[in-house]
Amino acid sequence: MGVAIRVIPCLDVDAGRVVKGVNFANLRDAGDPVELAARYGTEGADEVTFLDVSASASGRDTMLDVVSRTAEQVFVPLTVGGGVRSADDVDRLLRAGADKVSVNTAAIARPELLAEISQRFGNQVLVLSVDARRCAGGVETASGYEVTTHGGRRGTGIDAIEWARRGEELGAGEILLNSMDADGTTGGFDVTMIKEVRDVVKVPLIASGGAGRVEDFVAAAHAGADAVLAASVFHFGTLTIAEVKEHMRAAGIDVR
Predict the structure, then answer these.
(1) DSSP letters along 3-70, please?
(2) Exactly one of 52, 89, 131, 216 is catalytic; which is it?
(3) Is residue 199 annotated as part of the catalytic site, yes or no?
(4) Is the pTM of this model over 0.85?
(5) Does 240 have pLDDT greater than 50?
(6) DSSP class of 255
(7) Nearest CA to 82 among 58, 62, 63, 55?
(8) Is 131 a catalytic residue?
(9) pLDDT for 84-130, tens place per residue?
């Protein structure tokens, strides 16, 4: 593999606190986002991702404060997503201290937003977050995967693999691929989906959803992920970033 794999803890932030559940339900408190981000920074995280899961106007204000306080203490790249609807939203987050911004629902509603952000700030700051699940309930797509919104609760009928390809074409500098079926289950990443997206995009691919054991991170890397993202296993002490990196190195994977 040509690029060293990044290990990224993800912090889902709700009203200023980190929360985590299974399939975005039954959320439980996992701590203070600034404290957690700082801890992960010292423990060897290559980046930290914040996702605002209550992205109302008040949620966004809270998030800007969290981002600015985190940026003062954490010296690894910080990606922030949730409720980003315009290039001006991106500008505010970058000014607060974010290094990259993740866009999801707004890009589905208006794909040209990706081009607007990329042209204004450069594609290196733009992460397209793709929340995908296997098609069910009579929905069919060419790949068998469907893009969802609202924490996986609403289907769009959009083919997830094709959307990732189009997102890169429109200007996304990275793809954050979230398996909504696997999210929070600790049952392993969806390696089939990772491989299918890897086949159609050249930009870095971040695998998310399902990490439970050190072997899962190795499998995601072998499937083509350039970065592996996890939440529950880090927040609740199941695994440490150091353990994950050590195991990946032992498996012959180049890590940061």
Answers:
(1) SPBEEEEEEEEETTEEEEEETTEEEEEEE-HHHHHHHHHHTT-S-EEEEESS-SHHHHHHHHHHHHHH
(2) 131
(3) no
(4) yes
(5) yes
(6) B
(7) 55
(8) yes
(9) 999 999 999 999 999 999 999 999 999 999 999 999 999 999 999 99
